[in-house]
Amino acid sequence: MAFDINMIKKVYQKYPTTVEAARKVTGKPLTLSEKILYTHLWNGNADTAFTRGEDYVDFAPDRVAMQDATAQMALLQFMQAGKDKVEVPSTTHADHLILAKLGADKDLQESLNTNNEVFNFLSSVCNKYGIGFWKPGAGIIHQVVLENYAFPGGMMIGTDSHTVNAGGLGMVAIGVGGADAVDVMAGMAWELKFPKLIGIKLTGTLSGWASSKDVILKVAGILTVKGGTGAIVEYFGEGATSLSATGKGTICNMGAEVGATTSTFGYDESIERYLRATDRDDVADAANDIKEHLTGDAEVYENPELYFDEVIEINLSELTPHLNGPFTPDLATPVSEMKEKAVKNDWPLDVEWALIGSCTNSSYEDLTRAASIVEDAVSKGLKPKATLGINPGSEQVRFTAERDGLMDSFMKFESTKIFTNACGPCIGQWDREGASKQEKNTIVHSFNRNFAKRADGNPNTHAFVGSPEMVAAIAISGRLDFNPITDTLTNENGEQVKLSEPTGIELPKNGFAVEDNGYQSPAEDGSGIEVVVSSESNRLQLLTPFTPWDGENIIGAKLLIKAEGKCTTDHISMAGPWLRYRGHLDNISNNCLIGAINAFGGKTNAVVSQIDGSIDEVPNIARTYKAAGITSIVVGDHNYGEGSSREHAAMEPRHLGVMAVIVKSFARIHETNLKKQGMLGLTFANEADYDLIKEDDTFNFTDLNIFSEGKQLTLEVVHANGTTNTIILNHTYNESQIDWFKAGSALNLIRKQNA
Ligand code: MIC
Ligand code: SF4
To answer: Which of 52, 63, 93, 96 is catalytic?
Structure first.
């Protein structure tokens, strides 16, 4: 039986009438995305037609999910909201804090030892406030959500950008910062700009080496890392129904890498099969009753150009395997072209590690396809040249895979390492031998992100993203430019052999099995549970509310850093070793912007103090400005804050006295995070004004005192030689978001309301 089945049934009850009302008010047939959005309006009535890409709309998500690295901050904020219990079903998952080093058992134990305080904190907060807790080793948040909670036609938010994975089961699932999660858990509306809609029509069927991963690797190449910003990507067509549910999950998961708000697929037989295989006949039966509402209207899919803002068509029959990278997930290269491109760009061709896992690609089917390659290689006398590392997605997948002999297959390569059911190397939780030497090298993995330093902290590791079966094939060949479709390998008898095409099993023939799934359900009455946070702790720190705005224009601000080029959340608040401070705002602020490239001098983590001309690390300079009572600002390039949902990337600068972040453009979640934490997230009305900003300028916000919706702001830039430039800044704040700014943060407002 599914968790929260009554909630799901209640959602389904609303569907027939609300969908009909939405069709009427919009005067047109509906996409699936619109059906889900209109049935989840906060006020419950589909009586207004919203303008996509313009209107801010209040929604009522069905559930919330959090992972350990973001939950700490989310729950510290929730504890301040003045509530006894969460108002919607919510869960927390311990998956990011587990280091991959020696292999699953030892690593898990080690992580329990080192993160004990944080896991205890999470477990007791969850217990107290009615939140389900998935213990360390239970699995990666998005895989566990897919297996247990995701349901067709539902809407959820999660404090992780890959929450979108649940689109594989036909949800609208959206990644948010912790403060957004607090709103929903506290029983308030959740606001989102009504998204634009990108339709992707899939025709044909996958064959040979092509996989679901290659669909999204190709889409990333087409849309680039910001092409999906502000949009829901909806997949449809006969190609879509031919994909497995977990394959759909893979595609939706990596939609985060094109900046999409989320991605989704209509309810179909593969989703039904998956629901039944994961012990949710009740959800499948309920979904079948309202089936026609859980996918887009036929007219929409027949004439998509009329109903989507953009339409892309991909023929799965023509799709070939891809590898995307290095350093950005949208640099797509068909495997057949890699030889030439790698040599031209001087990418190292030898591969040392091949990693399979992450929330993107750790399903049972993924493991079977990769295992089939390993078995084939063994039968042909091939030994791997690179080390294969595997992180199963969940204990259920791991247990079942072990029962069915898949783990034995992987272990036929002596060097294989099976790591914990957790994020591991995908988020820099990888103690890779030799990484500190910073040698130039190449790795391949089936994860979703490959930003510099992400996996092992080495800026010279070139990481390429591919399907699990391609990763397995590269583990065997040890070469980035290996094309399994055309190339042969020399086996131990000196013969030339070719790898056979991968074969997979969609769902375990004998069903899924698990002994202990790692779930802890919360206390019925949590009022007696005490959550202790020691004031001595360097891992956890209770929050002090940010100071409200004093109503005055900001005058005399200084530049903390002008970031040049790519500045993702990994550059603003690095993960890996810093994950340990995710619950301690002051300590984690010591990584603030240390990865951003200073436009003046091109270095990272070296900026000039405008107080005494000394050069120091970014966090130190910020702290000196703050101590001197000087407000600081940050300037950035395009798609600033790309990547993660971590609100630390907004809270740290806020904590260190930065009041405004002015950039050419923002990634969606980060822009909202800045607003929520009471900061000014602004964009240059004229992009070229970015070039006017000098290192030693002084900044005056001259009309902040009349900050209002739809009205640009003016920034006076005073250069060191006394000349000035007046720059116009755009913003997307509506009146209630301006109230967050005034109050010092959105949380300050909630607290007031619940007081
Ligand atoms: C990531 O993949 O970057 C993370 C780690 O899962 C983040 C969340 C975080 O920073 O904790 C995400 O994608 O939102
Ligand atoms: Fe974990 Fe990596 Fe997925 Fe983020 S992308 S949730 S770090 S597995």
So the answer is: 96
